[in-house]
Amino acid sequence: MTTPRLDCYPSEAALHQHDAEIELLGLPFEKRPNLTAPTTEEERSWYRTWDAHSQAMSDGCFENGNVDMLRSMSTSFAARDMLAILDELGQKDLVYWGFSYGTLIGATFGAMFPDRVGRLVNDGVSDATLHGTDLYARDMRSLIDNDKVYRGFLDSCVAAGLDRCALAHPNVTSTSLSNTIDDLLISLINSPLPISSHNSRGILTASSVKNSIFRLSLYELGHPPSHPLPAYDDNVFNKTMFRTGDPTSSRAVVCGDSDPLDSSTGAPDSLDRLIDLAHELEKIAPMGGEGWALSHTGGCRHWGVRGQAVESFKGPWTNLTQTKFPIIFLSNTADPVTPLKSGRHMAEVFGPKSAALLIQDSFGHCSSSTPSTCTARVLRDYFNNGIVPISETICVADPDTLFPSSHQMNAAKLDDDSKLRAALLDLSRIPAEY
Q1: How far apart are CA 105 and CA 158, in angstroms?
Q2: How far apart are CA 103 and CA 92, in angstroms?
Q3: Would you say 168 and 157 are in contact if contact means Cβ atoms under 8 Å apart?
Q4: Span of 8-17, 71-80, 326-335 with lowest mean pLDDT
Q5: pTM of the model
Q6: How far apart are CA 211 and CA 213, in angstroms?
Q7: For a tag site, which of 75, 97, 365, 367 has the least CB within 10 Å?
Q8: 403: pLDDT confidence band, cut at 50, 70 and 90?
Q9: Euclidean distance between the first and final Cα of the chain, in Å?
Q10: Beta strand pairing status for 200-204 and 193-197?
């Protein structure tokens, strides 16, 4: 609801309709017998249909949308906006805690304006050195720990038991639970399940199950859904107030920051290359690889030179000027889309005088997915007292935060750090989007 508008679609309804059409396509794995099978003609046809939808979205933006605005949505412009806010407020130094994509903004700010860094935490670290230069390599890097998070979720569910995890039936093991989910996917490929409940109608497909596992069990681990917001008739904007994604804004940032990929520019790219990327990502991240390839690198295929940002910081990421105060790069040991390897690399890029790496021994996206009182204490000391942790310091997550018992929840209220823990739990309810 902010302005100026992008106007890639003539109305909000048109955006949601196009989104629904793409959603109904499902995922391409349903067109292939198994992960090791070669690409089938049916699968290739699926990709051509999806690619046509993707091109229609991009073409709509540049034929009908606010092109000047689209080309002004880069990460470096976001960093400049933050600098302008500081100047307007008369504040010398930036105090910032960025999550997921926010770590790209934080790293870019630190590289562009090192003398304005006051306190800066990048939590759930994306590799800024790949973001604007090699989307294929960035996508491969992003998902290297994805399956660790899935396996960690299954292990935790089984350990929690049926009282705390509905999937943990008697005698179930992590392996048998994984096999059950795989069998469910196969059965739904052949026969989608009709759903008719008091508030929903439709079908359950293999693709929708995979997407739900990726979003809820991996990407939004520890971020329970909030209460629904008012619908059309209950707000002055006469618009849906439910949280819905607008892929055009994220595409404008990711693709605008990056070198052109689509074949119309003469770049060495093809639909086959995207298919190969999706296959490789599916091997290392079976529950989210294909969707990630499509929504990120795939979405930039038709963006092209016309959508390149007016300014995009691509480095160099070497010999950076020392920041006024050290940055904390904070990574989980297993994060589905921003792996520890990226956090360690970015800390090395800024160097020991400008950065420290804080590791949280947990799985999920960003530290907030599985709250850690230890991590919170370190960050509180950093923000309030200027104490920088020794690089590679490891904090463990609080026990059983993913599937807490009522006894543990009540006991936590009596702890000396109850206010800190309550703040962490509030923070964990806010999804960190990439």
Answers
A1: 38
A2: 21
A3: yes
A4: 8-17
A5: 0.89
A6: 6
A7: 97
A8: confident
A9: 20
A10: antiparallel
